[in-house]
Amino acid sequence: MTKTIGLHPVENVAGPKTIYQRTSETKPYVSRYKRPDTVSHSSWNWELISDQPLDQWLPDLEEIKTTYPDRMLIASIMAGAGNEEEMENWRRLARAVVNAGCDAIELNMSCPHMDRKDMGAHIANDEDIIRSILQAVTEVVSVPIWVKLTPSASSLVDGARAAYAAGASSISLCNTFPSLPLMDPETLKFEVEVDGLVTSGGLGGLAILHQALQRVSDVSRAFPDKSISGIGGIKGFREAFNFIAHGAGNLQVCTAAMEEKGSGGVGVNLIQELTSDLGEYLERKGYSSIEEFRGVARERIVEHSRIRRKSEAYNGGYAQPA
Ligand SMILES: Cc1cc2nc3c(=O)[nH]c(=O)nc-3n(C[C@H](O)[C@H](O)[C@H](O)COP(=O)(O)O)c2cc1C
């Protein structure tokens, strides 16, 4: 999966775009600043989509596909909404990345910090827009189309329904959660800021795992026969297992892979460990594939009132009928 590729002008903030926050057992506060014996807590970023133009991406995509012809290459793309010109931008991006060899496309309807109101997470509550973009893209390419939705949409399940009905073969969940960086009590500076100012950015990594699972579960229980790509807080096998148990059929990793930078490639060790731990688990349990336990958690997520109480007198918060 690529970084999101677009056609509109992109200029990132004049400072760090991403920070990696850590916490420790002895002083369990969260901070980006280096301390001994800390473990990863989350990433926080306010990076926009790729600032590299489409023409620069295309030869790279071609080279990746030629070098690894038997591997899936998926391009994430984004344009605006609300008029024919923007629909044409989606079509142009889709055609270009498929001609360059991409096997599937992910439509980014989820970036939480776009300035433009017709882009990213801003459009995820509008089912008409979701439908119109899918219609534009499916007109011009025949590869599978995934739609990445935002966890902050109040109508996530409705958005997923609109996307599946309009031809999405999979929904990706989640993008990062809208959030603010922390302020240092001594200096009164945010841990990331430009000229003393910050704006809403996105939280990723372990800190969002449980919330991402909830979103996957919501969509998976509503559409148990449809595909979901799970993302949000995956580092090792246990997190991956949980996404699969809630119904995800494939997984993506961002923060944990980026944290591993410098170890011979972004996320190489992590992926090797993840696949070998998964293989070992399948063998130990006698499963032939993840399909044997995918969605196993679905039926066990119920309304609060269905959870047993110690007494039988409780009536869901209402007085017992006389
Ligand atoms: C620095 C950074 C850049 C990101 N850029 C994109 C992007 O271009 N397109 C996109 O769909 N998601 C983007 N994301 C979101 C991730 O793909 C992912 O959905 C999110 O970080 C949650 O997964 P994680 O907990 O594994 O990081 C970005 C995340 C980070 C940390």
UniProtKB/TrEMBL annotation:
GO MF term list: dihydroorotate dehydrogenase activity; dihydropyrimidine dehydrogenase (NAD+) activity; NADP binding; uracil binding
Annotated Gene Ontology cellular component terms: cytoplasm
Key words, A-Z: Flavoprotein, FMN, Oxidoreductase, Pyrimidine biosynthesis
Database matches in SUPFAM superfamilies: FMN-linked oxidoreductases
Enzyme class name: oxidoreductase
Protein name: dihydrouracil dehydrogenase (NAD(+))
Residue intervals of the Dihydroorotate dehydrogenase catalytic domain: 63-260
InterPro entries given in the database record: Aldolase_TIM (IPR013785), Dihydroorotate_DH_1_2 (IPR012135), Dihydroorotate_DH_cat (IPR005720)
Superkingdom to which the source organism belongs: Bacteria
Pathway(s) served: Pyrimidine metabolism; UMP biosynthesis via de novo pathway
Oxidoreductase as UniProt keyword: yes
